[in-house]
Design goal:
The complex is a heterodimer.
Chain A (H helix, E strand, L loop, with lengths): L2 H5 L15 H6 L14 E7 L5 E7 L1 H5 L3 E6 H4 L19 E2 L9 E2 L5 E7 L2 H8 L3 E6 L6 H4 L15 E9 L2 H6 L3 E11 L9 E7 L4 E6 L4 H12 L6 E4 L15 H13 L3 E4 L2 H7 L4 E11 L5 E13 L7 H9 L9 E9 L13 H19 L3 H8 L8 E6 L5 E4 L4 H12 L4 H10 L3 E13 L7 E5 L5 E5 L8 H13 L6 E5 L16 H28 L6 E3 L3 E4 L2 E7 H9 L15 E5 L7 E14 L4 E12 L6 H21 L28 E7 L21 H12 L9 E2 L3 H10 L26 E2 L4
Parallel strand pairs in A: 1-13, 4-31, 9-30, 11-12, 15-16, 21-22, 28-29
Antiparallel strand pairs in A: 1-6, 2-5, 2-7, 3-6, 8-16, 9-14, 10-11, 10-13, 14-15, 17-18, 19-27, 20-21, 20-26, 23-24, 24-25, 27-28
Chain B lengths: L1 E3 L4 H10 L3 E4 L5 H6 L7 E4 L9 E4 L2 E5 L4 H5 L9 H8 L4 H6 L2 H7 L6 H7 L3 E6 L2 E6 H4 E3 L2 E2 L6 E8 L6 E7 L9 E10 L2 E10 L6 E2 L1 H7 L6 H14 L10 H6 L1 H12 L1
Parallel strand pairs in B: 1-3, 2-3
Antiparallel strand pairs in B: 4-5, 5-10, 6-7, 6-10, 8-9, 11-12, 12-13, 13-14
Helix pairs in contact in B: 4-7, 9-10, 10-12
Classes of the chains: A alpha+beta, B alpha+beta.
The structure holds flavin-adenine dinucleotide.
Chain lengths: ~800, ~280
């Protein structure tokens, strides 16, 4: 156990399955989501969206729409432009690797580059009126050639995603360490595989939405928006609207799920904020699911072409290859998804040499940003599939091949020859990866599976087992500010730039604070996601908040506790080490009647006019604000085993059993950890078998309802067993690591491995996800005729690419 | 748009024939979604829920009468639907999730005539007859002749479907609606509706229809004839499956290619037979 909890031995809150603070509001329906805000006089917005994936916008006629009943305003980009400092939104992270500067527009100007791109906004007295009038906006489009596939986007004869640019290579970069040439030259076994990995969208229950209000008396603009990152949105709005920081407040109310796409600032947020200032009325926009499919960022396609070199005893010598990543039409966040894919590949194993060329291609589709897992599941998938393949070729058990290569406990902390995208080091902090795998195999009955498989086969049933390991970088820095305050009324208030979107962030922070101040976490009030409460902040992404905001909460609570003890020691005339705290009062251990309540202490600490403060060298108030700086990430790990059955008449897969042994360091609340891992597994099952964001050859989205786009529902969830190891992280005081995304990392890899195992009698080689019944059935059917080295579906060979041929260009001609 | 809830069928028929743009609203599971998506813009919605004679299930003589506004959930829960009618109940059970089953009605489902829906094939397999009410009286349409094309039935614009009549005969028969879908609750990729009677090993009655396999349920008299009187051997089923597969004309969509859908028919037919045997 980390130091901190030993100092307060009678406190068991962290580590306990305390009830979530969030539950009352959510279960009674009293929680407020954006759409629950009913400000008097609110107007409603509807957006006119491009029906084309690529077209010139010659002329827009808003006259009819403006005359429609209930309509208050219709705006296009030229209408808004005089009130904007720029027509494009700088929402992406910087990177030297970017070749093309393609920032999304506030609204489309003279060109639309994906189907669903907003072109105009209609503001009306009701949502109905706004939507009906949006149909009356006439836009004269001139369709242009469409880039629908990232594979052809880089062909020299491909048309351009943006007419003003000469090519579609948004970025090119590489990972490179060790000597891959030597590794391959002397290898006993080397082979090459290609993979096609598709992830769809994130599909939180709540779509996006925003409400803005401008107060003319104070010139204060408030935006409530369903976001993971209110501070990031505020920055874009201040910059584009030319407002100073004190005149803009962004609040994320209850957020009904984010899962990645609510990380970026969207055109609608800027437009709604601006319209509220123009119209001097609150303006609301609530996205429907169809719009979500069209205009909320997705993760989509990656093609991999990779080689691995091994010794005959399965020791990995090196890997090399290329990754082609579909970026969509704009840079909405940056290169973090392909970067995370490339860095994840060699994370769990000892791989002496690694070279990966990464090509990031523009397409005429909605931009790509992280979806829970953010590229890491793809990296895990590729690595784990290669190891399965190697096991087959070397006739060594799949688990044994992994065991021989996993980073071992005695290597910890293990410095990898990789750097994070912010150029900090990759140091695996703790964990026993081989033991994690061992435990998973034991619980799964790995060794006896062949017998079970044989007897199933005798009944005509095709079952299979698969294994996947993962290591996930969590807790991205540099900091998240937390303020802890004991108020004069005796309550404890916590505020943080951390932003909650369903991960129980309030409960987490309250537990950490309660550990220091004693008492019941449910009595602690936590304010998240409000830029006025905490001016500096980053928000929720990258499984970071428990690690980063948790560290600051821990430090701030300790500082407040120290102040309370110092003050109480003076006022009670007792030594600090004789004092105790219980969430309501500080008292003398052996004489509990000698006590001061939090209210008494807070009042004493805030002082009286004309009197000296009770403690000379302590500032006023019982409050502390901390921003613990954390540069290195911490690495969670785990092993998943899936058992599946494949119906060979139809290709349908049933996941029979699934288990994960998971290690995210110290678990502050085991119930919340389980909830996060289970949710991630559900998402991973979707990525393995169901979720498919389809586009046709004109880049028109074809899956725009949940009847077409399948999500995992409760009844598709198999029996899942979770087991935990707790390798405390030595990198933070609480010993914690992130857990928000991990469940989806190993899941597709383990399931596809199991399917391949089940279909071994047909010689199936599975190099893609998701796997639909139709794809599997085709493999089963064609098995007898196909040569053993037939290219599997999704096959891609990296073309020769001269990276230097792609010039630096910008949409603004800069 | 007007909304009217007439209390009787004649009243409803009068409104319907007076207004070309009027439309019946049953459970609304499909129609309200279509209204929301601006796919239809009726002038008047005629709510059918107050019309008693359209509601409920009754057994009379040689058939079971299922009123048009009977919900999927009511059908799924009615244990009088046995024998030949069991296939209809089995289909109702597998439609979507319980929220939709509590909302949707058999009348709405068959009048919408989505080829991927579950009832059309089941009604054909059960040799059901659909009763259409018009201002000039009622007519009976065999299920086989009711489903014409994608979202198209032989119901006239001014008619209302009043009931579905499912024959009780053959009493000893058993029915199975085998729905193959990507996930539970999804529309069928292919569905097999099968009614079989087996007497001392030989098949004495067989009727099979395939759903999601074309614009209307695929039903071949020659396949029924092939199975009837046979011992339902693997070879016979294979032949039957082959014929249905050849007759099928499904579309390519997210649930699978047309070819895939056709090709899985024989295997699913075999499975349906195995489950009834
Ligand atoms: C999420 C979802 C999933 C679904 N999954 C399935 C599934 O797996 N399998 C399946 O089979 N179906 C499925 N459905 C369709 C469902 O069964 C609907 O309930 C059904 O198609 C329509 O029934 P309804 O009573 O709601 O009709 P409504 O939506 O009210 O009406 C549908 C159409 O029928 C007309 N109509 C209704 N009643 C009559 C009548 N008596 N006479 C003349 N015209 C009439 C209406 O004018 C309208 O055109 C699903 C629907 C949804 C929303």
């Amino acid at each position: 156990m980390p130091q901190s909890s030993q100092e307060t031995p009678n406190n068991s809150y962290p580590g306990a399955p305390v009830r979530r603070l969030e539950d009352y509001g959510l279960l009674t329906g009293s929680a407020h989501f954006v759409d629950d805000l009913q400000l008097p006089g609110t107007l409603c917005a509807a957006f006119v969206r491009s029906p084309y994936a690529h077209a010139l916008v010659n002329r827009t006629n808003t006259e009819e729409a403006a005359k429609a009943p209930g309509v208050v305003a219709v705006h296009t980009l030229p209408d808004l432009q005089p009130r904007l400092t720029d027509t494009r939104m700088a929402t992406g992270l910087p990177s030297r690797s970017l070749r093309l500067d393609v920032k999304p527009g506030v609204l489309a100007g003279d060109e639309v580059v994906y189907a669903g791109e907003p072109v105009a906004v209609v503001i009306a007295r009701s949502r109905y009126a706004a939507e009906d009038a949006a149909d009356l906006v006439e836009v004269d489009y001139e369709p242009l050639d469409v880039v629908a596939d990232c594979r052809s986007a880089l062909h020299t004869d491909s048309s351009a995603v943006h007419r003003k640019l000469s090519h579609n290579m948004a970025a090119a970069f590489e990972f490179d360490y060790g000597n891959t040439e030597d590794a391959f030259r002397d290898a006993d076994l080397a082979f090459r595989e290609s993979f096609h990995l598709h992830r769809g969208g994130a599909h939180s229950i709540e779509c996006r939405g925003a409400v803005a209000r401008h107060d003319p008396a104070t010139d204060h603009l408030t935006l409530w928006t369903s976001t993971q990152r209110p501070h990031g949105i505020k920055r874009v709005i201040c910059d584009l609207l030319g407002r100073n920081d004190d005149s803009v407040r962004v609040i994320a109310p209850q957020v009904g799920g984010g899962f990645g796409p609510k990380l970026v600032c969207y055109p609608e947020e800027v437009v709604i904020a601006l319209c509220a200032t123009i119209l001097q009325r609150p303006v609301k926009w609530i996205q429907d699911r169809y719009e979500y499919f069209l205009s909320t960022t997705q993760e989509r396609d990656q093609y991999w072409d990779v080689e691995i070199a091994l010794d005959s005893d399965a020791t990995i010598r090196g890997m090399r290859g290329a990754l082609l990543h579909d970026h969509g039409a704009y840079t909405a966040r940056g290169l973090n998804v392909p970067y995370a894919s490339g860095i994840t590949l060699p994370l769990a194993y000892n791989i002496p040499a690694y070279h990966l060329d990464v090509y990031v291609a523009l397409t005429n589709k909605v931009p790509v940003t992280p979806v829970r897992g953010a590229g890491q599941p793809q990296g895990v998938f590729v690595m784990e599939r290669l190891l399965d393949r190697a096991a087959g070729k070397l006739s060594i058990d799949r688990a044994e091949v992994r065991r021989r290569n996993l980073v071992r406990k005695e290597q910890m902390p293990c410095r990898k020859s990789l750097r994070l995208r912010g150029d900090t080091e990759v140091i695996l902090d703790s964990g026993d990866y081989p033991a994690t795998q061992e435990l998973a195999l034991k619980h799964a009955g790995w060794d006896s599976f062949r017998e079970r498989q044989q007897s199933a086969l005798e009944q005509g049933r095709y079952i299979g087992i698969g294994l996947a390991n993962f290591v996930e970088g969590t807790g991205r820095g540099p900091y998240e500010t937390v303020t802890v305050r004991i108020n004069a009324s005796g309550n404890v208030a916590v505020a943080s730039g951390a932003t909650a979107m369903g991960q129980s962030t309030q409960t987490m922070l309250a537990q950490i604070v309660a550990e220091q101040l004693g008492g019941d976490p449910s009595r602690i009030g936590v304010t998240c996601g409000d830029t006025d409460a905490t001016p500096l902040g980053f928000g929720g992404f990258n499984s970071r908040q428990t690690v980063i905001a948790g560290a600051s909460a821990h430090a701030a609570a300790r500082a407040v506790k120290a102040k309370a003890f110092k003050l109480a020691s003076r006022l009670l005339e007792a030594a600090e080490h004789d004092l105790e705290i219980d969430g309501r009062a500080v008292f003398v251990k052996d004489a509990p009647d000698r006590r001061l309540t939090f209210a008494e202490l807070a009042r004493a600490a805030s002082g009286l006019p004309g009197f000296k403060l009770p403690v000379a060298d302590m500032g006023p108030g019982l409050e502390a604000t901390e921003s613990v700086i954390i540069d290195d990430m911490v690495y969670a790990n785990g092993s998943a085993v899936a058992e599946v059955e494949v119906d060979i008449d139809t290709g349908r897969v049933t996941v029979l059993r699934f288990l994960v042994v998971h290690d995210c360091g110290r678990r502050l609340n085991p119930v919340i950890v389980d909830g996060q891992v289970l949710g991630g597994i559900a998402h991973g099952i979707g990525n393995a078998l169901f979720e498919w964001m389809g586009f046709d050859e004109d880049a028109q989205p074809v899956t725009t309802t949940f009847a077409d786009y399948l999500l995992v529902a409760a009844d598709n969830m198999p029996e899942v067993r979770l087991f935990h190891l707790e390798s405390d992280s030595p990198f933070n005081a609480l010993g914690v690591k992130g857990v928000g995304e991990s469940g989806c990392l190993p899941t597709p890899a383990a399931i596809v491995s199991a399917i391949e195992d089940a279909l071994a009698p047909f010689g199936a080689k599975l190099n893609q996800a998701p796997l639909t019944p139709a794809v599997l059935w085709e493999l089963i059917r064609s098995a007898p005729d196909s040569a053993p080295d037939t290219a599997p579906p999704g096959h891609w060979r990296a073309p020769d690419i001269d990276k230097d041929a792609y010039r630096q260009e910008s949409l603004d001609g800069r | 748009m007007k909304y009217i809830e007439p209390a009787s069928l004649p009243e409803a028929l009068e409104i319907l024939s007076a207004d070309d743009e009027a439309r019946c609203l049953a459970g609304g599971a499909t129609l309200v979604a279509m209204l929301n998506a601006d796919l239809v813009e009726p002038s008047t919605l005629i709510g059918l829920r107050r019309i008693d004679e359209l509601a409920g299930i009754s057994v009379s003589g040689d058939h079971i009468r299922i009123g048009a506004t009977t919900t999927h959930a009511q059908i799924a829960g009615d244990d009088r639907l046995t024998g030949n009618a069991a296939v209809v109940r089995d289909a109702a059970r597998q439609i979507a999730h319980s929220a939709i089953r509590n909302m949707g009605t058999i009348g709405g489902a068959v009048c919408h005539a989505d080829p991927n829906a579950d009832f059309p094939g089941a009604l054909v397999a059960a040799n059901a007859v659909l009763e259409a009410a018009g201002q000039s009286g009622r007519r009976q349409i065999p299920a086989d002749e009711f489903f014409l094309d994608y979202l198209e039935t032989s119901l006239e614009e001014d008619e209302i479907l009043s009931a579905v009549m499912v024959p009780v005969e053959p009493v000893g028969a058993r029915g199975r609606h085998l729905k193959f879908s990507r996930t539970h609750g999804d529309y069928a990729t292919i569905s097999i509706s099968l009614v079989l009677a087996i007497n001392s090993g030989a098949c004495s009655h067989a009727r099979v229809a395939v759903g999601s396999a074309g614009p209307a349920p695929v039903h071949l008299a020659e396949v029924d004839a092939l199975l009837t009187g046979s011992d339902l051997s693997g070879e016979t089923i294979k032949q039957a499956g082959q014929k249905l597969m050849e007759a099928a004309d499904p579309v390519d969509d997210v649930r699978g290619s047309a070819e895939y859908r056709r090709m899985i028919i024989p295997g699913l037919l075999q499975r349906a037979v195995d489950e009834l045997r």
